[in-house]
Known about the structure:
Blueprint: H1 28-31, E1 35-41, E2 44-49, H2 55-65, E3 78-82, E4 90-95, H3 98-107, E5 113-118, H4 125-131, H5 136-145, H6 148-151, E6 156-159, H7 169-176, E7 179-182, H8 190-195, H9 202-205, H10 211-241, E8 242-243, E9 246-247, H11 249-252, H12 256-275, H13 285-303, H14 311-330, H15 341-373
Parallel strand pairs: 2-3, 4-5, 6-7
Antiparallel strand pairs: 1-2, 3-5, 8-9
Helix pairs in contact: 5-7, 10-12, 12-13, 12-14, 13-14, 14-15
Amino acid sequence: MQELNIQRYQPVEAAQGCKVEAAQGCKPEAAQAFVTGTVSTRAGDVQRVSTKWSRADRIGQIKSRVGAFRMSYTVSPGLYAVGEPGRDSDVFASASYKLSFDILRRAISGMNAWILVLDTNGINVWCAAGKGTFSTAEMVKQIASSRLGEVVDHRVIIAPQLGAVGVRARQVEKLSGFKVRFGPVDAADIPEYVRTGYRKTEAMRLVKFTLKDRLVLTPMEINPAMKQYPWFAAAILLVAGLQPSGIIFADALKGLPLLLLGLMAVFTGAFLTPVLLPFVPFRSFALKGWLMGAIALIPAANMLDMAGKNLPYQAASYLFFPMASSYIALQFTGSTTFTGMSGVKKELKIGIPVYLASTAAAALLLAASKLIDWRII
């Protein structure tokens, strides 16, 4: 492991303004909305934050859920205070993704505590731990830059259990003197965890991924897919309207069945597969998405009278759209507890060549379908 030099991290300024790069879209006035004052410490003034969500916080939660500013909904790294914390108050670690920070500060309402925010580039704890930003190095850096050793007498930081994959507790203690204690999976369990002497029940250790949890995440899958849909629609309309004499706009409407099947692929891959995830056969997300796409294609094809189309047209549709559903469903792997990094890499390694080959084959079949319509073949 690369040696960490904690001496090079300078203390933070007394006023922790919005230090996120402008490219990330963080505005100082927005970042400061939850600050209610300061708490004096030996390391300087630390901003006190409210544990109640404002209207702006709730709107921000919704917008971040649908991906309006997925990578720019951030809070400045550093130390924050909740209530009237003292030198013996608990220190909780969080990510710079503002929704993670907001959920934590709301969960510890009524407590006197410190929150140490790690710079995760606007990524939540779980994903940041996997990507290496909620990490040993970053935790040591923030301990040093916030001068946490001068703020508290104890030497314990309570980190989210889902951040454990990115933080080496022994290395943190060796480099900073602070022990890392991994708390509950759910921030809502923190008060009970503290009240019972920092003991986790089995329920506190389990990652719950309920229907509600999956539903909350589906907008983040639908939104990126729909951003690409206009390109798909434009290509289909162009091909449908293409005639030997040129592009006939009236004929472009013949592409409507394929446009509807495209919407079906988005629905099955980005919504139906995640919602029914535990009940769909196979461990592979790619296979789950393909199966759901194939099942949905049967009634959709009947409604759109696919039987009346020529054979290459039908073959292109049956080949491409389940694969499109599969590809979209595969994107959900990063949001679930059903697979790990190695599983994702394995699926991508196998899946991407299959997706590319299927898309190319479907394009050739669609071209053949046009040639049949033109009576060339």
